[in-house]
Amino acid sequence: MLDRTPNFPPPSAGEGGPRVSEGRERGAPFPETSPPHPLAPSPAEGRGLGDQPFRTSSGGLIDRRRARDFTFDGRTLTGYHGDTLASALLANGVRLVGRSFKYHRPRGILSAGSEEPNALVELRSGARREPNTRATMAELYEGLEATSQNRWPTLAVDALSVNALLSPIFAAGFYYKTFMWPAALWEKLYEPMIRRAAGLGRAANAPDPDTYEHAHAHCDVLVIGGGPAGLSAALSAGRSGARVILVDEDFCLGGRLLAERREIDGVSGPEWVAQAVAELESLPEVRLLSRTTLFGVYDHGAYGAVERVSDHVAVPAPHAPRQRLWRIVARRAVLAAGAIERPHVFGGNDRPGVMLAGAVRTYLNRYGVLPGSHPAVFTSSDDGWRTVADIAAAGRRVAAVVDSRPDVPVALRRMAESAGAQVVAGGQVVGTRGHLALSGIDVRDSYGSTLRIACDTLAMANGWNPVVHLDSHLSRRPVWDEAIHGFVPGQLPTGMVAAGAASGRLTLADALESGARLGAEAAESCDFRATATATPRTDPESTAHTPLWRVAKPKGKAFVDFQNDVAASDVELAHREGFRAVELLKRYTTLGMATDQGKTSNLAGLSIMAELTGQKIPAVGTTVFRPPFTPVAIGAFAGHHRGKEFRATRHVPSHAWCLENNAQFLETGLWLRPAYFPRAGETDWLQTVVREVETVRGKVGLCDVSTFGKIDIQGRDALAFIERVCANPFGTLKVGRSRYALLLREDGFVLDDGTVSRLAENHFVMTASTANAARVMQHLEFCRQWLWPELDVQMVSVSEQWAQYAVAGPRSRDVLRRIVDPGFDLSNEAFPFLGAAEITVGGGIPARLFRISFSGELAYEIAVPASYGDAAWRAIMQAGLPYGICPYGAEALSVMRIEKGHAAGAEINGQTTARDLALGGMLAKKKDYVGRLMKERPALTDPDRPILVGFRPVDPSQRLRAGAHFLAVGAEPSLAADEGTMTSVAFSPSLGHWIGLGLIRRGAERHGERVRAYDPVRGGDVEVEICNAAFVDPAGERMHG
Amino acid sequence: MAEHATLWRPRGAWDLYAHAGRHGRRKGPASVTVIPREGLALMSVTAVDGAEERLAAAVRDRFGLSLPEPGTALFSGETGLIWSGPGQWLVLAPTRGTLDGLGAALSGLAAVADQSDGRAVLRLSGPDARRVLEKGVSVDLHPRAFGPGRTAVTSVAHIGVQLWQRDDATYEIAVARSLAGSLWSWLDEAAAEFGCEVRG
Amino acid sequence: MRIRCPYCGERDNGEFSYLGDAAPVRPDGLEASAEAMHDYVYLRDNRAGEIRELWYHGAGCRAWLVVTRDTRTHAISDVTPARDVAKARAAKAHVTESVGSAPHA
User: Fold this and answer.
1) Which residues of A touch B30 (CB under 8 A)?
2) pTM of the model
3) Which parts of chain A sit beneath pLDDT 50?
4) Three-state secondary structure readout of A572-632
5) Which of A302, A778, A933 lies nearest to residue C58, judging by beta carbons?
6) Chains touching chain A, criterion 3+ CB pairs below 8 Å
7) How many CA atoms lie within 13 A of A745 on its CB side?
8) What is the ipTM of this complex?
9) pLDDT score at A168
10) Is C30 an interface residue toward A (CB < 8 Å)?
11) Chain C interface mutation, best of B90, B150, B155, highest count of C Cβ atoms under 10 Å
């Protein structure tokens, strides 16, 4: 199950989607031009090649033969295939890439990964414009367009950087305090001002032209992260034959092995990666998903991931989605997500040019870019010195190394000095110089003197934080590990283990060992025979580290959270004002709340609060991490379900005919029902609906009522079952008869209504309303399986089997005589009102005929197998021609039921009882049924409850509105004066004026009384008279005819 | 009756949606083939409590097949029994009408309801059929977890379906007839990248 | 969440709908009291810990299930067809009633 060549960016997503691989270009995992060991001295100090002044002359995992032109703020620049936007910008000497959220401070590139807080850009243009994209994650492609954001008019000259002068106003708690200013000013002044001034990028204004899709995957072992630990885990699990999925957010697998100069068993990191990937690709049950971010961990081994299928090309290939949302189910998971380096907190630490030391090494070793010509290093750990070694190995000079620890090993000092570096042990960087980019640092040495050192890049190394986000998604808290001065996973989600740096094992040797061992154990626990291979040899390394949580007395703002512009002083302010608990600190300062979710800032904020409160860091605690790990496009979650596909659509059996005959449709739940059928010359819907109603009442009409639920109920106890679920009695229902059925919920309110027809002694069919069909089925299954499992009842939905049509109107019998096969007697005597029969039509096609009427006219419902639904509809229309038949839709159906005073969805709304709906008289008295006792609760039998009655406007020319509230004539509108509501209204063609149904207090006793139908929202205030709800044929004579 | 013959023709559940021909990717051979299966006979059979053994015997007599266990389906040629819920099965036969009278034959043992018109059935085959289904089906379809003779009642793109596998690269999927159009629209998009041949 | 349906195997929780505590038993029959029915409809314990609750596999085999779940961790320790639970309960109640010689209405 190999989906792609994961370890080198393919040129484009070809047709074939997941199999985007078109083979590795030139057959090598890394460009042939790239020597295994990526660094070599450059010919000219401080200068790279051609127009990429900061590119090294050789080395890196980029393909220098494949130049990629791109634009940043309209300026055309060139990078290479294999670059990120960030590495290409740095290669071109672009260091200022954005403005900060609140203060519009100039910002550059801090990191080389998904933790990037600063370098957020708008990618692409027009409908594909996407804001807040990390330049460090955006793969460079030919023609890429990037624009800086949150600046005006230009990045270099940003008028709103005056916000920085207002920084006291924008400090912690700003939002809360602002809300306390005069409220009148909020909407008019402050909010628009803040919205303009603070913010990130702009979303596209046009609909997204790309497609997204979902996919499901299952595996034994999920490996999260493709660095040394993850690759080792995947290898030992994969070799066992277990189904393995490895996901990695990068476009190349390898993690920090691509970024560091390391050796494994005598080969370079990238070479070892290439071998590992080649082996994994050869294993049939291993699936490698690069460019895929595992963003969420859910209960019971469910995971969410998003694959950026086409984000590395300008436009997705035909039939390829832009992104694919994976739902992964894994029996075991190995979390090998690595660690994120900690910045130092000192004055001006946000100045472009100040970077994480690990990122500087990534740019140098992986991308062949040294971001500055005078780099300096500020470290509190031994691995910071690795940066010095790498720069030296590239043949460049290092301006200075400042180590906050007083004792620096002699070997490190010598190595630095041979690279030309000034070494300051026991020193701290307290401030930075420069405007739009770093030009120097102020260093306080161990004697307290301040030195000024010129440099254009500062690499910060302050230790590493394991990525504890994913293992915390199920409300599990990380725990403090004093050995690495950081949080490590605590109790992990069931089935998950953590390996390598993600578990706090920060050395390469530990990553390889723990990955291999835990991968094998995961496969073993899925019943595969797995062995961890011997841990390969690696070159020695030291993780010695004494964290410097913040620099004392910084010069200028010392940022903790770069993306939300939260400085150390904001944490101090929160402390002074009493917001000391970690959850309060977060909300008061917005620390960790930006799109980066505080990946580089959380621990810094906690450590300062710990210092201020005199607590240890773990006592301060951590906030909870929630999905997603990094932002996910809404489109990816929607997948196929956009526009008309937002949800499924159900079509009625007459759909084809309706399309051919200009039907206008109406959505009812998932159903698309024909609402009315306009004819030429009809100018509005009401005209059409009036004509349809008049045709039914005067001649005959045909309506598709297939949307009703139909439940087949059989068994020796079928009748007993129906008795228990229906509130009205059925004991006397004979074979061949139908009856109205009223279903209550156990709490006494009406659930639904429909009909029950008895087709044979132990065979019934029950109908449910369109909207409630699924709910009724679920309820009946509950009753059958849970309440009364002893009853012999077999139940199945046959809703889809039968196309069912109402043939209604005085000529309906005449029409049906031409439809039913000869031999069936349709006369009133043989087949009276509420008759039910199994018949045949069309020369032997089985059908069912019911004499039930929703319209109040002589009417039938005829059911035919759905395949014949189209034919039956056409046959009935043809048979009805001589009688003036017309099709009618849901609108006319609704008008006629209101004319008859039948309750429907607007009245059966979950808040009404049978009595409220004037159906109390039919409630059974001698049987137990669902809802029997609870409907007798005092509140439900209160005579003051609103009761269903009819309403007519006193002035017949006035229009009624559903939703209007009833008030006594002359009463002031108030909640206390409210007497009920109008639930349904229609223009009655039969009466020539508007009519309404509604629920009003003691309605049954008040026929003839006048009240106001008050509708302030739409300006309605109509005097109406309470009347019988049956406006047409109140005695019900027509349907019996 | 001549009038009947012209007027009373059944309409296929996929008529409006699944148009024969090549869909999606044009390049290369289509790796997914779709055949709308019209005119099937399909009955739901729900066992009477306590009559399962007699039902199994009656079914064996009639179809030569046992009642399949939960999650499985048994076929003899194109006639099959497909488990569809506790105590419930679908009986499938290739020609409409061939299962008429099943209700009477199983009287007292099971409730039988005709579903021939209620379900729209598609046959999906080809080397990438599983990959198409995996975009919508949350059930594990890997050969170690699923395979020929297995069935699942589940959903695809929020649409309830029943799925069963016939051979290594052939699946059949049944959906409520009214939802055939929505299922088709999902399938058409999901299969596009592979190239999809719809047979008439 | 994933729920292992006894018939269908493990499925996404999206295929199921939740009802609630499986402990209350409906007081059947005409002699049931309004108070007992009120308790059945409304009174629920809100336990932190293991609870037996009713779920409906509506997008699958349509079986009602009794799921034993720890409300603190979502750990599911057992899933049984509700019909089997209900039948066992009825059998037990029948034994109890026979012993107490109270005829079932």
Assistant:
1) none
2) 0.92
3) 1-6, 8-49
4) HHHHHCCCCCHHHHHHHHCCCCCCCCCCCCHHHHHHHHHHHHCCCHHHHCCCCCCCCCCCC
5) A778
6) B, C
7) 16
8) 0.97
9) 66
10) yes
11) B155
